């Protein structure tokens, strides 16, 4: 760990000092440090009752994804289903979906976006409630949630059609105070 500091600046606004990235976290009254959005992803869901209390299902899923050279951004599991987001292009999506169908019922939801909230306050239920309330009061869909085990990153998958609106509303909720 070299502890090298990086300064990110806007080349179109040289008078702005930019952002200093360090290994230390500066305390702020705001619960999140940033909100980012990544559009154009697909959400894949695989459901099967054979997954209940079975071992090796995730390993089989990993083998299929690896054989198609597909990486995943997010993953969420329950007793009988797995959801994950991918960036794989449509040229090889049909072959991937056919192989995934051997594991269970597959549902594909294209044109999705991942909105990530990054900060140190995700262990606070009120902060999470505020984020969810932004989607609820504006009738915006939440298609998947994923939170890092360190509770510093909450990712919300929604449709591309509302991603810009949702990102702006989250920014207004958490940064315009």
* Helicity, as a percent range: 25-40%
Cross-sheet strand order for the largest sheet: 4-5-3-6-8-7
What is the end-to-end distance? 36 Å
Tell me the fraction of residues in β-strands, as a range: 25-35%
Indicate the low-confidence ranges by residue numbers. none
Write the layout of secondary structure elements.
Elements: E1 6-8, E2 19-21, E3 34-47, H1 57-67, E4 72-77, E5 81-86, H2 93-101, E6 105-118, H3 125-137, E7 144-147, E8 153-159, H4 160-175
Antiparallel strand pairs: 1-2, 3-5, 3-6, 4-5, 6-8, 7-8
Helix pairs in contact: 3-4
Summarize this structure as a short list of keywords or feature phrases.
about 180 residues, alpha+beta, two-stranded antiparallel sheet, 8 strands
What does this protein structure show overall?
The chain has 177 residues and is of the alpha+beta class. 28% of the residues lie in helices and 32% in strands. It is built from four helices and eight strands; from the N terminus they run βββαββαβαββα. β4 (72-77) and β5 (81-86) form a beta hairpin. The chain is globular and about 55 Å long. The two termini are 36 Å apart. The mean pLDDT is 87.
């Amino acid at each position: 760990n070299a502890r090298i500091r990086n300064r990110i600046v806007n080349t179109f606004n040289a008078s702005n000092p930019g952002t200093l990235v360090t290994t230390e976290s500066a305390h702020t009254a705001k619960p999140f440090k940033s909100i980012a959005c990544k559009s154009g992803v697909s959400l894949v869901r695989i459901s099967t009752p054979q997954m209940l209390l079975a071992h090796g299902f995730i390993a089989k899923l990993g083998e299929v994804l690896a054989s198609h050279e597909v990486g995943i951004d997010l993953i969420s599991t329950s007793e009988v289903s797995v959801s994950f987001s991918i960036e794989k292009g449509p040229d090889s999506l049909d072959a991937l979906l056919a192989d995934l169908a051997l594991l269970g019922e597959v549902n594909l939801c294209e044109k999705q976006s991942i909105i990530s909230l990054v900060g140190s306050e995700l262990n606070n239920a009120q902060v999470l409630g505020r984020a969810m309330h932004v989607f609820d009061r504006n009738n915006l869909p939440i298609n998947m949630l994923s939170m890092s085990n360190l509770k510093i990153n909450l990712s919300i998958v929604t449709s591309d059609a509302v991603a810009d609106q949702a990102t702006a509303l989250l920014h207004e909720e958490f940064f315009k105070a």
